[in-house]
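Feature request, filed as a ticket because there's no other form

It would be nice if the structure record came with a short human-readable summary line next to the tokens. Right now we just get the raw output. Example of a typical job, pasted below so the devs can see what we mean:
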Amino acid sequence: MDIDKFLNQNENKDLLRFITCGAVDDGKSTLIGRLLYDSKLIFEDQLRTLQSDSEKVGTTQGTGEIDYALLLDGLKAEREQGITIDVAYRYFSTPKRKFIIADTPGHEEYTRNMATGASTANAAVILIDARSGVITQTKRHAFIVSLLGIKHIIVAVNKMDLVDYSEEVFHDIRQEFSDFMQKLDVPDIKYIPLSALKGDNVVDKSEKMAWHKGAPLLETLETVNILRDRNLSDFRFPVQYVIRPHLDFRGFAGTVVSGAVAVGDTVKVLPSLKDSKIKNIVTADGDLTEAFASQAISIELEDEIDISSGDMIVHANNQPKSSKHFEALMIWMNEKSFDLSRDYIIRHNGRNIKSRLDAILYKIDVNTLEKQDAKKLEMNEIGRVAISTTQAIYYDAYSKNNETGSLIVIDPLTNVTVGAGMIIETQSFDRNLKGEVIDNEDSLKKHVDRREFSWDTGLVDKRKRMLRNRHKGKTVLVIGSRDSASQELAQKLEEQLFELNMNTYYLGMSNLISGLDADINNDFGDRDEHIRRIGELARIMTDAGLIFITTIKDVDDYDAQRLKQLNYPNDLLVVNLGENRFKKDKADIDLGSKPDIEKGIEQIMSLLSSKSIIPEYCI
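Raw output as currently delivered:
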């Protein structure tokens, strides 16, 4: 009975999938090897082989120490070069949890392998060499991790033994990484200083870093809470196989990718749109009354409906979107660049569909997250693209549902996966009646032209408002890398204008996110929609004759240009604070990273006066 109890407990422990990533030679493989070694999870024969290999091909030859990286770097090329090339998976278990580790490569040319490993992970351990700090590849991996919807990051600052276990070095790296991650949407980030080679803070707390009050790595991994990460509200069941063992049973087998379903629920079948009810939920271990995400089941319906592999069963009152045209953030994984003239195969929820990559809105500089114009994507580059398919797909935005919002792109000639995409809910490209993408440079202008043509005005026109207010409408956009300085400047500017009897209004970004933008996510994929809504709001506020003031963090040239176009025909003044992605020479006023708030307001007031926004006699 004790054995049965033990086996049952072990079987029912929850599973955490996590990846290790970072730059080359940051110690990813060494960390995992050390984690397994210190946890007593390496068998004696494995240990003897590891000791022998360490003397022959390891980086610790002649020292008598074990090269823990050899436990994962199994390819001959990996051992020769001392690097990870392919993704290596390892399974281990502790009394509290089961784990599957994906050790991913650090070389830029193998970024596609890293993205593959991250696609199924619940958490990511990002290693940073304490000597090098945060580098471009660190940012690239952090960005990909956030795009793939991983909600838990553990930043392991490794090789602390080589910097004398310096607390100052650790806190400097923590601050730099934290500043970068503020631009992305990852709710749970933890920081651990450690030495994978020496074992400090890997399994046991390090006496040499007593200043670190947090838990060591293994304890942190054991306590990561992933229960809330699953989407349990949107039932999605792609049919993988139709089961017909005899005349009295017809079931539809697959995995519940999200949500939950119970016997008696009313469901709808896509694409036929036929309704039915759940009659039975069948598994290898017996029938169930309900099933949840990640369970493999077979569903029997009350009605005879024609359903094939690739169809989807959903709740009748909660359906995914359906379209032949959509947009996605694409990670390009092939040596041949993204080719707009070619057809590809999209694999989505078990279906292979002929598709065309219509256009690139922009590509993303992973170091600065700046959006750049692009006509093609090279290997490992990331961009926002428009896609058309020959059949409609049923999808949710990736930010809401990772399973139905993800896809891969396959080259039909070689059957090689050339790209991976995360579908975005909002659309930036305009299309004609044939579904063809309209040149994006003209798309926004045409939208503004249509809006202005149909703008419905009252009997109080702009001239009357200006005479009453004694000033024109104007948007003042304060861009800064630090929220506190931007907010202080914007609020004091509003106060001074108000005291001069100006009609002015300040609206902070947090008000927008929790109010007007509450229906979209505060992540990179939906940022374009945030910008669009701010631009439309600015147009309304300035048309009302207000001097509208708002702050946005980390705006780049692409965002600012869109805001200016959306605010047309009224003016938008850009005030730049600090180091960010916006080019200083394109700002109307640049106040530097440590602005004098009072002098800054004087400059803004002077510029508003010189542009006849505020008549001089008012000041």
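Something like this underneath would help us a lot:
Residues 483-499 form the longest helix (17 residues).
The chain is about 25% helix and 30% strand.
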